[in-house]
Amino acid sequence: MPELPEVAAIADFVDGRTAGLPIRRLDIASLSVLKTADPPYTALTGRLVESVGRVGKYLIIRTIPGPQADPEPVINLVIHLSRAGWLRWSEDLSPTPLRPGGKSPIALRVHCGIPSATGGEGFDVTEAGTQKRLAVWIVRDLTEVERIATLGPDVLALDRDEFAEILAGTGARIKNVLTDQRVLAGIGNAYSDEILHTAKLSPFATAKTLTGEQIDTLYEAMRDVLTDAIGRLEGQGVAKLKSEKRTGLKVHARTGLPCPVCGDTIGEVAFSDRSFQYCPTCQTGGKVLADRRMSRLLK
């Protein structure tokens, strides 16, 4: 799943190629991904891309009127890539309209920038697998997207005291706090594993019971892991972001491999449709956490 660093890198990549240029056309191949009807997706035709950024893990393409476009001051194209979505840039997109209902992984095609004799620049938004969770909104104001309106603060915008106040107000496990977008926006399963490993905290630690020293360590780990990832991804082409993310992971998706810090075997806690990884020596005092499908903790 693309998280804050990947979405930031995608936004930077697309912004550098489209800002100030028009959107020529949108093609919708999967009608289920489009969650709004007003404005219609056709309203983006001819509008200029003012900027491309992010809010949490949401990609925001902000458009303003072009010479012959909808006069609405601002229309935003909002994309949430969810678990299996991705963006694929092309210098020469086919001009042939997409056919809704096909078997292609392409859900949305955005023709933008400079046209050519055979097509032109733009990008596809794709989704792999059978669980279709990718979502697209076209809105005048971002608060019209309920998921954005209910987001917690961006994790990189918090100072240490604000972070501590959030932790003190919940009895949830710290893994859940870090990944709950209503509490903190931007972190998903992979980077929460990396942050907790760096901070040497159990995923099952209770947020409000952390000591001041543990909060300091967790806050610094959160900022360090995310800013390091952003730095590594900066300037990378979209096609390379997934592999670059994997090379920077120390524990996530490395079940059974040695911990790069202590050498212990990295463990896994598996749920019905996802899992997370941790190091017993670094994080849980040597205790092995049980598969959560067994609903207990090994002693």
UniProtKB/TrEMBL annotation:
Keyword Cell cycle annotated: no
An individual GO BP term: base-excision repair
Entry keyword annotation includes Cell division: no
Keywords in alphabetical order: DNA damage, DNA repair, DNA-binding, Glycosidase, Hydrolase, Lyase, Metal-binding, Multifunctional enzyme, Zinc, Zinc-finger
Coiled-coil residue spans: none
InterPro entries membership: DNA_glyclase_Znf_dom_DNA_BS, FPG_cat, FPG_N, H2TH_FPG, Ribosomal_uS13-like_H2TH, Znf_DNA_glyclase/AP_lyase, Znf_FPG/IleRS
Protein name from the UniProt record: Fpg/Nei family DNA glycosylase
Annotated source species: Gordonia oryzae
Organism classification: Bacteria, Bacillati, Actinomycetota, Actinomycetes, Mycobacteriales
